[in-house]
Write a structure and sequence with these properties.
single chain; 594 residues; alpha/beta
């Protein structure tokens, strides 16, 4: 974990930084100040710092070699704790070594290199102290202005590379970012183990289940015993590609009026593959899984747990749009409370045990649905901050810019909230920066950013593929889960049907990465899962036509003599002409031929 502690002169910033590392068994203290034999006041300050350090600390003095700081940070070992005090002394040494205090940009190369070293530092805990000099009067000297400008730029670059930033004023600690990483907004005095950025999410709650139209019981980790194990490289079945092609070829033989099914041909192909028959049947027992997992922090800007409660209540009461559409489509509905997640821009959304439990729950939801005869699943979501979490997952997995992935934020009154949109974008960028050096392995992705609902949805996709059960997806949570599930087992994407991307930028990009082409361009914005239910009757109409339309009549068979019907008719005409009485009449030359 990397922390930056800023403050003015005599603000107490060094004391705060020292308290942050006080619980470590061994601390490497990197002193950047240059000793001076001509300045008694400066020498007294250095002596006071040395006297305050415990005897167990190891001191590294940079002296006239400021370039060594980046080397020390890069070479730090994972079990080490480092304290750098302070960046102002380091910057002064950079300019003194260069011998030029007239150009603020003269230190750009070294400040950029230092920020990169901070970002890549493998130490368990790195605390850097820096002066905040930008709050006072602009210095009157050229050297003073150079230092103020360069110091402000240095602080920006190092802060961007850190997990937490604190500003100390009059001895009071104000966490600008990452205060939760150290336990609270003040100074921690716990052991080094508490410095880890991973914060355990609440244990998975037993799912709340709403059953309608014959839905079966929901399995949970509390009900089903052992937690399942998930890892990349899962062996999952694929749809029957040969049968899928047969279903398309069969359409050419049907007695259809006009040119046929047109843009709905992919529906028939998809159903033929997942059902394993050339004459696929309409989906008769659909089920909707409404996942609710809330988030706090910037991801949920413009949203709230109370609003999510209301959305879930409307589903249960049957007044929500998705509930009404489910009733029209004859679909059963299950609402599942997933584990909540905290501020993913500050710490991990779930711990490893929470990810395993959520994946297991999703797998068992799909398994139970298959056992009860469900023939297609629809994934839906209504949690607070779910769209931003999905965008964060897609941004990290694809390298896309978060601002390009988030749609407009509409509040409960129906108005666009641009301030909330800005907070969400900032939170996603902070979260992406926090996890920049960590692996993109799917289990870690769900832990870092995904949260409970995306993890449960990922388990649903995996479980459905294992039971050859197709899934209709149309929203950010489902598409983010599909991307993560692909990294567990690439076969999963072949069981997904996307009716429409709803003009959602997150869904559009992820669908393109997955190769999931939308069937329609309705641009509906009725909530995740609603577009799938809206198009389900149309999907079933296409399958009904394909299954029930009779084939065209076969062409007449060839005669026994091996001639086609046309050849037989022409032969008969020649025979009649040859047998005609006029055939033997002599030719009489007309007069004009004389």
């Amino acid at each position: 974990m990397r922390l930056l502690v800023l403050g003015g002169i005599r603000s107490g910033k060094s004391e705060v930084a020292e308290a942050l590392v006080a619980g470590a068994a061994v601390v490497r203290y990197v002193a950047t100040a240059r000793s001076s034999t001509s300045d008694d006041g400066w020498a007294a300050r250095i002596a006071a710092h040395r006297a305050r350090r415990p005897d167990s600390w190891l001191t590294e003095e940079l002296g006239d070699s400021p370039g060594r700081l980046a080397e020390l940070l890069t070479a730090a070992k994972p079990e080490e704790t480092l304290l750098v005090d302070d960046l102002g002394g380091w910057l002064s040494a950079v300019y003194d070594t260069a011998g030029d205090w007239s150009d603020p940009a003269a230190a750009d190369g070294q400040t950029a290199a230092l920020a990169d070293a901070v970002r890549s530092c493998a130490a368990e805990l790195l605390v850097l102290v820096g002066p905040e000099v930008g709050l006072g009067v602009l210095p009157a000297t050229e050297a003073g202005r150079t230092f103020a400008d360069a110091s402000g730029l240095l602080n920006q670059r190092v802060a961007a590379a850190c997990d937490g930033v604190a500003l100390v004023v009059a001895g009071e600690v104000n966490w600008l970012r990452g205060g939760e990483l150290v336990g609270h907004a003040g100074v921690r005095d716990t052991a080094p183990a508490a410095t880890t950025a991973r914060v355990a999410a609440p244990a998975p709650a037993e799912p709340f289940v709403f059953e309608a139209a014959g839905a079966g019981s929901v399995l949970s980790t509390a009900d089903g015993g052992e937690t399942l194990s998930f890892s990349p490289g899962m062996e999952l079945p694929l749809p029957d590609e040969s049968t899928a092609q047969e279903a398309v070829d069969r359409l050419l033989t049907l007695r259809l009026n006009g040119a046929g099914l047109g843009g709905l041909i992919p529906v028939v192909r998809f159903a033929g593959g997942v059902q394993g028959r050339p004459d696929p049947r309409p989906f008769q027992q659909p089920r909707v899984l409404v996942l609710r997992g809330d988030r706090s922090g910037g991801f949920a800007a413009g949203d709230s747990a109370q609003a999510a409660d209301r959305r879930l209540d409307e589903v249960v009461e049957g007044t929500a749009t998705i509930a009404m559409l489910a009733a029209t489509a004859g679909a059963s509905v299950q609402a599942i409370d997933c584990p909540d997640a905290g501020s993913a821009e500050l710490h991990d959304a779930l711990d490893d045990a929470g990810v395993d439990a959520a994946l297991t729950l999703g797998w068992r939801l799909a398994d139970a649905a298959a056992n009860e005869g469900v023939d297609v699943l629809v994934l839906a979501s209504c949690g607070a901050g779910a769209d931003a979490a999905a965008a964060a997952v897609v941004a990290v997995l694809t390298g896309a810019e978060p601002a390009a992935l988030l749609g407009r934020v509409v509040d409960a009154s129906g108005f666009v909230d641009d301030a909330a949109w800005i907070r969400r974008v900032g939170a996603i960028r902070d979260a992406r920066h926090r996890v920049r050096n960590r692996t993109r392995e799917p289990h870690v992705m769900l832990s870092m950013l995904g949260g409970g609902d995306i993890a449960v949805a990922t388990g649903v996709v995996l479980g459905a593929a294992s039971r050859r059960l197709p899934i209709m997806i149309d929203g950010p949570v489902a598409i983010a889960a599909a991307l993560v599930a692909r990294d567990y087992g690439a076969q999963t994407r072949h069981w997904l049907l996307m009716p429409d991307h709803g003009d959602n930028p997150t869904v559009k990009l992820a669908a393109d990465v997955l190769g999931a082409a939308p069937l329609l361009q309705l641009r509906l914005g009725l909530g995740e899962g609603a577009t799938a239910l809206t198009t389900l009757p149309l999907v079933n109409t296409a399958l009904t036509i394909a299954a029930a339309t009779p084939p065209r009549e076969a062409p007449p068979a060839e005669a026994e003599d091996g001639l086609s019907e046309q050849e037989r008719i022409e032969s008969e005409i020649q025979r009649v002409v040859a047998d005609s009485p006029t055939a033997e009449m002599p030719y009489v030359k007309p007069p004009w031929e004389d």
